[in-house]
From TrEMBL, chain B:
Name assigned to this protein: Electron transfer flavoprotein subunit beta
Biological processes annotated in GO: amino acid catabolic process; fatty acid beta-oxidation using acyl-CoA dehydrogenase
Molecular functions per Gene Ontology: electron transfer activity
Major site of localization recorded for this protein: mitochondrion
Gene source species: Plectus sambesii
PANTHER family noted in UniProt: ELECTRON TRANSFER FLAVOPROTEIN BETA-SUBUNIT, ELECTRON TRANSFER FLAVOPROTEIN SUBUNIT BETA
Amino acid sequence: NSTLVIAEHNEEQLAAVTRNAITAATKLGGDVSVLVAGSKADKVAAEVSKIANVKRVLLAKDAKLGGQLPERLTPVVLASHKQFKFSNIVAGASSFGKGLIPRVAAKLDVSPVSDVIAVHGADSFTRTMYAGNAVTKVKSLAPVKLITFRGTAFEAAADGGSAAVENAPSSDIKTDTSEFLSSELSKSERPDLGTASIVVSGGRGLKNGENFKLLYDLADKLGAGVGASRAAVDAGFVPNDMQIGQTGKIIAPELYIAVGISGAIQHLAGMKDSKTIVAINKDPDAPIFQVADFGLKADLFKAVPEMTALLSK
Amino acid sequence: MRVLVGVKRVIDYAVKVRVKADKTGVVKDNVKHSMNPFDEIALEEAVRLKEKKIAKEVVAVSCGPTASQETLRTALAMGADKAIHVEVDAATAEKMEPIHVAKILAKLIEKEKFDLVILGKQAIDDDANQTGQMLAGFLDWPQAMFASKIEPDGSTHLKVTREIDGGLDTIKVKLPAVISADLRLNEPRYATLPNIMKAKKKPLEKKTPADFGVEIKPQTETVEVSDPPVRQAGIMVDDVQSLVSKLREKGAIP
C-alpha cells in the first residue's frame, strides 16, 4: 500500500490543506509520497521534505506548470503513478484538489471518492452528502483510490521528517488548450478562514457591508478570521470568498462566533464541526441557537462593540 | 456553437432530507424533487449564450429514472432546444456514479458534435463534484471548473473567471471545453407558463446507457447512511459580560 499526495501551493508556500491530506494519507497505511509540481516549487519541496511521515518528495519543476492547471498537472501525476504504482492518489478537498483528482481518475478509469471526512481502512471511508445532512460510509472497489480529503476533518501533519527530494518522472505537458491568465486573491491582514483558530462571522443581521467593521474590530482583538453567511454574500455585503457554508467554505475552528446569522441548514453545514460555537442574535427562535454552546439574545449593534470593549480590558 | 448541458433531478434544495430507518439511503418517496440548482445555472448560461447568438443550439441531457423527464421538460421550458433522456431504472439510478454519467456524456459527444459542455459544479444530493472534471478527462478537453463568469475570447476560446479558495482566478480555454457552473455565474430564470406549454412540443429523445456502450458497474458501495451527529444545544447567557467570562473559563479566548 502506498499513497501519492498532490501538494497544493503558491510556488512559495504549501497550502495548509495539504498537511491535513498528508495526515489522512498516513491513515491509509503504507508509504506516503508527495508530488510538488510547479514553475519554481523548490522551496515548497524543501518545506514538504521536513514533514513527518513523508517518505519521498517528487519534484516536477517546469515553467509550464505555473498556475497549476489540471490539464497540465494530470500527465505529471500519471507519469509518477506509472513509475511507482501507487495504491492511492489523494489531495485536499479544495478547489485545486477537486479540480484535479476527478480528471486523473477518469484517465485511470476509476471512480473517485470526494470530500472524505474519516478513514476506516485502506478502502473504507466516510463522506457526507446532502449538504452534511447525511453521513455515508462507503467501500471503494476502485483498483486505485482517488480521494480528496476535507481539511477540517484531519489534523495538520507537523514537521519532523527528512524525506529525500527527487525529480518526478518526466511527462509530456501540452499547453495548447488552456492557459492561466491571472488570479485575484483577497488580501487580508487577518488569518485565513481555513486555518484561523477563531472565526467571527456575520449574516443578514449586519444590514450592510459597512457594519462588518464591527466584526473586523472584534476579530482584530481576538486574532480571528472573518466570514459571512450566504445571505450576507448574496446581499452584496461582502465578497463570496468569505462565505461559510455548503456552497462556500467548510471550516472547523476552535471558536466560531456567529453574529446576526439565523443558521440555515446550508450555513450550519459549513461550521457545525467548530469546537465552540457562540451565537449572537436578537431572534430567540433563530435555529443557530440550537447548535450554539453559548447563545446571547441581543442586538448585535450593542453587543458586538461591548464585547470588543470588554476584551480590551 | 452547439452547447450540451447536463441536468440532474434531485431532492429539492429546500427539503430537509431524512435518513431511512434501515440506513440504506435517504427518504425519496413523496419528497419534492427539482432540477439541481447548479444545473439550472449551467442551463441559464447556455440559454444566454444562445440569446447572444454565440450558441446556435442548446441540448439538455439527463441520466436517470423516468421521472428525470420532468427535469428535462423544465430545461426545455427554460430555453433548451432539445432534450436527451438516458433512462435507467430506479435501482440502477441509485448506483450510478459520476464516472458512469461522464462516460455516457463522452460517448454522446463523440456521436454528436458539441463545442461546449456546461454542467453544474456538483449535484446537491451526492455532493460529489466530479462529473465535469471526469468528462473533460475522458475527452481530453480543457476544463474550467467553478465558473463565475464566461466571456468569449475570439471565436475559438473562452475566458473563464473561477471561484477558487481565497478569491478568483481567470483562465483561457480553447474550445471544445467543459465548464462547471458555480453559484455566482447568473440567476436562472423561471420557466413561464407559455414556455412550459411550448416545451411540451420540443423533441425529447430517449436513450439507454447500452446505446452508448456504457455498463453501470459501481465502483463504490454504500455501506451505511446515517444521520450526522447531533450537536447538543448549550446554554443561553444573559449579557456580554457573562458570555466573555464563560468563554474565558472554557479557555476559548484569552
